[in-house]
Automatic annotation (TrEMBL):
It comes from the Bacteria. It comes from Paenibacillus campinasensis. One of its GO terms (biological process) is aerobic electron transport chain. Residues 3-285 form the FAD/NAD(P)-binding domain. Its cofactor is FAD. This is FAD-dependent oxidoreductase.
Length: 352
């Protein structure tokens, strides 16, 4: 019996499972999913969990059940590529014939002193819940600083404004405008929305260190009651520790079939893989489908055919009634992209 072990039950891991079980699966292949939790956490919605605008149940999805799929729960501590096994915390190692690494990402603090110790995170279900507790327990008119003006920071600030209208909320961003990689029109719309809803945006902020009650812009202290870090991500520690060629972001370099060149039995999916896209749930899902096709072709002794990944676009929310998006080169703003994003979320909850 051949063992395909999939590490991580997020967007990439579950999209791979869905692709594999959508067609013929060889009877001599066992698929094993390994995850810490008994459900998928919808990570794109962790900002809302932290802000308190959704319950934790609404961002959990049950794992699928298929004949031939086994689910093991536990925490991965090391991947032993040479001996083809996965080491687990307080549990026996898991041996594999083929391996798919889809473990996702964690915060990247860029060497900023105090950032890890004194800021809140959105990068795991537990961290988002802890962030919610801390934000919920703030006294009225407390100061909240969100470090990073990317998608997560913007969505958190907007939902937190709806959840806690009494708080003083500010975004600290290095660039001259939020969402600097998007068209000016989108950034301008977001700036206007935040002005109308009394959320401050401080551009050109270079965070040099973080203390318990202050964020430093170089040597200038910005007093705060809570700081939330949304200023960068990197692959999880287990992937960081793999002695493999990686890109500048720490993501593993792969061949055209998304295999590790020195270990072709190992596939890497999503935030841990060096792809020509910003890490996202959509990219992880699209790539995972192709990995599924590669595996099925190899099991048939065929040559896999891989096409360039194509993404549909990006959608973001500003609370429950407004949003923004980029579909190809077309910018969309207002209520329509918010409705579209709600539809995408509804579909993702019912995929399995």
């Amino acid at each position: 019996m051949k063992k395909l072990v999939i590490l991580g039950g997020g967007y990439g891991g579950l999209a791979l499972i869905q692709e594999l079980f959508s067609g013929y699966l060889p009877p001599d292949v066992e698929v094993i999913l390994v995850d810490r939790m008994p459900y998928q956490g919808l990570k794109t919605e962790y900002y809302a969990l932290a802000a308190g605008t959704v319950s934790d149940v609404s961002v959990r999805v049950k794992f699928p059940q298929y004949e031939g799929l086994r689910i093991l729960y536990g925490e991965v501590t090391e991947i032993d590529l040479e001996n083809k096994r996965v080491l687990m915390l307080n549990d026996d190692p898991i041996e594999y014939d083929q391996l798919a690494i889809a473990l996702g990402c964690t915060d990247r603090y860029h060497g900023v002193p105090g950032a890890e110790e004194y800021t809140c995170s959105l990068q795991s279900f537990a961290a988002a819940r802890e962030t919610y507790v801390r934000l919920n327990n703030l006294r009225p008119y407390s100061r909240v600083h969100i470090i990073g003006g990317g998608l997560s920071g913007i969505e958190l600030a907007a939902d937190l404004r709806e959840s806690r209208p009494d708080l003083n909320i500010a975004i600290l961003d290095r660039g001259q405008r939020v969402l600097s990689s998007f068209p000016n029109r989108l950034s301008a719309y977001i700036h206007r929305w935040f002005e109308d809803h009394n959320v401050e945006i401080h551009n050109g902020v270079s965070v040099s260190r973080v203390e318990q009650d202050a964020v430093f812009n170089l040597e200038e202290p910005i007093e705060t009651d809570i700081a939330v870090w949304t200023a960068g991500i990197q692959p999880v520690k287990v992937v960081q520790e793999l002695d493999l060629p990686k890109d500048r972001s720490g993501r593993i370099l792969l061949n055209e079939w998304y295999q590790v060149p020195s270990h072709p039995e190992v596939y890497v999916i999503g935030d841990c893989a060096s792809l020509p896209f910003v890490p996202s749930a959509q990219a992880a899902g699209a790539q995972a489908e192709q990995v599924g096709n590669v595996l099925k072709a190899l099991w048939r002794n065929d040559t896999p055919k891989v096409h360039p990944l194509k993404l549909k676009g990006t959608l973001g929310s500003l609370g429950k009634h407004a949003g923004f998006g980029l579909m190809g080169s077309t910018s969309v703003i207002g209520r329509v992209p918010r409705i579209l994003k709600s539809g995408v979320l509804w579909k993702s909850k019912r995929n399995y």
